[in-house]
Design brief:
Chain lengths: 719, 593
Amino acid sequence: MSDKIKKTASHKRNYIFPLMLVAVVLVLVLSILFASSLDEQLYIQRLYSMEQNVKKSSELVNLSIKNEWEKLHQLVYTIQRFPARSTQELLDNLVDMSQNSEAHSPWTFSCIDSGSSSYNWEGTVTRWPLPKMLPTDLPDHQIAIRESNTDGTEQMLFLQRLPQPILLNDGVTLTHVALTIDMNILLPELEVSSFGAGNSTYITKTDGTRLYHQTSNTEVLPAYNVITALNNAEFLYDTTYEALVDAVERQDFFTGEILLEDMRYFVSSAPVAERWAMVLFIPEENVSGGTTELVQKLILQMAGIAFALSVVLILFMRLNARRTLEAQQTALREAERASRSKSEFLSNMSHDIRTPLNGIMGMCHLAIRDYDDPSGYLNKIDQSSHQLMLLINDILDMSRIEQGKVEVRTAPLDIHVLLRGCITNIEALARQKNIEVRVDTGGLIDCWAESDELLLNQILTNLLGNAVKFTPEKGAITLRAAQESPQNGVALYTFEVRDTGIGMSAEFVARMFEPFSQENSDSRTQYKGTGLGLSIVKSLVEKLQGDILVESAPGKGSRFSVILPMTVTLPVQDSEAFGELSDQGTVTGMHVLLAEDNELNRLIASDILEELGLIVDTAADGQQAVDRFAASAEGQYHIIFMDLRMPVMDGLAAARAIRCLPRSDANVPIVAMTADAFAEDVEKTRAAGMNDHLAKPLDLGRLKAVLYKYHPDRKRGGN
Amino acid sequence: MKKTTILFRMLTTALLAVVLTGTLCGCGGKAEDHSLSILTPNQGIEPLLDKLTAEDPDVIFDVQPYYGAAVSVYIQERFEQNDLPDIILASYAPEGSIQKETLLDLSGYGFVQNYKASVLTNLSVDGGIYMLEGPTSARGIAYNKTLFAEKGWNVPTNHEEFISLVKNIHAESDIMPMTLPGVYSGTYFTLMSELSHCDFLMTADGVTWAREFAEGEASSREGFGTGLALLKDWVDAGIFDAEQTDMSDQQGIKMLINRECAMTYLVGGQSFFLGKIRESSDEFGTFPIYGLGEDSEFCATNYGLKIGLNKRLGEPGNEKKLENALKLLEMFSTEEGQELSRSSEADILPLVGSTAQLPEEFAPLNETMNRGHAAPFLYSGYEDLLAITGEYLRESVTNGGDLDGAFELMDSIRQDTIKNQNTVNTLATVSEDLTTEQTARLVVNALYATGLGDISLCTVQRYTPGIRLVAAANGKYYKGDLDTKNIDIPIGPRYNDPVSTRDMTGSEIKQLMETGLVVTNDAGCSDYLPFISAGLDPEKLNDGEIYTVVFSPSDCGEKSPLEKTTVPSEIIWKEFWREYITGLGTITPDCAR
């Protein structure tokens, strides 16, 4: 593989890996973002659920507390409605109340006097252990949690100052009443069963001091101050420790999620009683109810799908890239092959150019050496020159085609004349090889049609030339023309060249129309050519909107079929028909002005013209030509051969100048002689006032034809 | 070489470099000191410290004992100066704002929940817990049950019966009705306070009064009136005696055991009491303080050992020290830990669900407490009154003074406290904080200043594990005024004893300087306290020459090798010390040269 291809492949590999990396990272980032978003949404939902639960729980706790107050109020009403007169009677009344209440009542009732003595409904008198609750500047209703002096169980104490102190006869003044109940009895509502086990519920003061924890549950924060203990927790999402502290202090609601000792909890606080807070901890897994796992699975699956899609996309891109690469590599190989073909062509061409040149030079040398009988050598030189000319013509034609400078000039043509002209082009060579050439026009209906005769001629001449070239001696070549019935004035004409030549392999047939392609190298030494002919033929056929088909097999000859759509037309009288090239009249006596800046070419042309019996005057440049013509007598010159590319004044300018001369023979025929043989060049010469065009190197036959055409006698009607 | 290979090698090299650098950085350099400094007023914490260090040798304690003459005052000074070690042991809890400022909030730790709610309520400062409490003991009156039975004396159930009992004892025997630790002036104040708690101070009005009195908006007469009235009854019954003014807890208990008295006011020394009664064939019992009326008994509980952590342990960089300190607190907060801190079976553990049983002798006190007739020893809030009022009361009850004069005194002191003008008691001024060494030098200089000898020697306090050795010089002075409360901080106990002297040769003095004061206890445990000197330079003494050496009474107590070899002088150490300091006027580091 060439360095270029390797570099291309390497470049491709370099792009693929980063692309894959980017794709993976993108998938990961998107997954994470999605997970975060989903997590947050779920968190919001769970938060709402927790808020509702804690509100419900606090309502139930407050309701329980309210019920106990109601109970106490009932007892207050009773002792006030039926006041005792003495402490003994008070105690008796309390005992009666105790006995009248439910058996094994979880609560106890007592009255407290101004001396901090407590009269209990089991009939005992004790010292009230919490005198700090009794000052008059404290609220009338107070709740406290204390431990029992007897068994240490936690009790909730409801203390109410009597609206009116009750004065007993023995000087005792009752100032307060108290109801005490075991916490375990009072607050079963603290258990938040809706979230399963593992929850912790605390009742705290507003400074976080723990008053009560439901002992049946696992303790999340075994600390005296729940708020202080949470200082080490990590508050998640947009909640903060300070927000919780503030909510508890202000007896407001709060819900959030925390990370405490590697466990996630939802924590909620709600106000209860008048100056307390209920703080609830529920493990996050209880609240999420397994949705976290579900979400994680969902995210993993989605990430997996996204990753798979990414992989597929990347593979597709790789495949596409590979195909593109392969296409590019193919194109590159084609280009390389074309380049190699060109290189080969150049190599061959240089050989082909050098070969006739060598022949020319060699023959010249021999002619010089054997100038007594140089004719053999000169003939060889002539052959080599023709060979060289053909070579250069092919190259120029191909170049013109590749540059798109071939224009189709449609004009009515006689197909018979066309075919004859093509046969004439190869007749001599065919005769040399004893190849029979036949023409079959039996398939023609309309012999006149509109097309570019020049291009058609070139196409058929090329095919016939190849047929002659590749048909061994005593072979046969058939040129056949046929057509289908016209449709809307257009008919498909088929021009077929069949030979009994060596034929072509299927491999070559597949690429035969590619420039510089030839059958294997062995054949090229025997059958010389540029390899451009068929390529030129195909290009020209395509220019004419036609198609070319090939049938061939090695050793069995070939058949080329050119199918062209042409508009059928009526016969046209060609006033400029040359007639048979071989039947030209004499051109002697014509006075010719030859303008050619190249001395050698001027000499050659002069010699040829003088050989034909012409009188030749020469000019070295366009200005000289104009001067000489202007200085000549009117009618002196019968024809001017004007080279186009000349110093001082080029041929076109000289022709225009001559045409502008105030002379009656200013319309003398001017024929351009130039190596530029393209249609536009011809147009330029016509635009400059020139009459005709001869391509260099000069073809004697064409030269004679032109001379004959513009012979003054012919013009006068003589011939 | 491929790029990936090069990159891999570079990464490997970089990683290796990081690992090596990190390893090398770990070598050399100073090892951090994670030892915990701990201030303790007694050796009750030793068993706990020993247990912890045995279980976790990484925990190292640097014990800084203070056994001087003013334990509570000294600790209070250190709190106020915020000059505290890592762990603080105290017999009382300072004022709430000081706790919050100097100590670490422990309320967030789980071991706090091991304590009874009532204990935590008393310890709580604005929802925080800054000190934990050790075992406490109940205060009351201990009596010889056997003697009572022999004499036909009934155990009183109220104040009237108690007064009657006292009078009967006087009438029927020669023994002292009751002993009490009169050597501490505070005893008399706390007695008056407890008697006041039998009635008024345990009522709503009493609670209100306490609050108002703290703000200087109420008269002491209103709050302590009932208590003082009861005290007068005690005086009239003849409970008080001049002999009691020199008496310690242990002396009073010994007299009870020895039937030299019928009762003793059991303020401290409960463990000593239990130990002694076990040795006696008599049976003993206790009953609470009684007030007027029925169901007016009261039982105060002594302050248990308080333990707190310096706030700086919560700062970054002290994580390891905090971790070790918390280990101590966690152990302290268990029944096992409290048992180790328990001085006797009479101590009540402050923990929830404690299985520790009180001795039968203390059952009545326990019952009193269970019925709510109890409160922690009310020291906090009366620091300004305690000593001075106690002295006044001691003087009055033993010498027939006007007890009512105490009200005026208390009101005056309280007003001064409110106005922050305690000029009445300023005896001297310390110009700047002195070190322990400088303060000790003051003590030895003062001893030398008695003029009783050529050279004075006094021991300097150091930690002596396994044996309690009380030095003559303790603690340090801080910048500020010195009054009767804090002037005695540097001197050791037995300060009411006279300064002693001993003639010694130069070589003996040098030998003593070298060995220190070596003491061996009954358990055979020995340790020493180093001496410092003032006067003649010990290095320059002639070995054979006789010199008179002046010693502090703190160095000449029981178990001391100097006890029987020194001669007491006429100079009472505490009195001279105060005169000396007062005479200096302004205490500067130069005074401690």
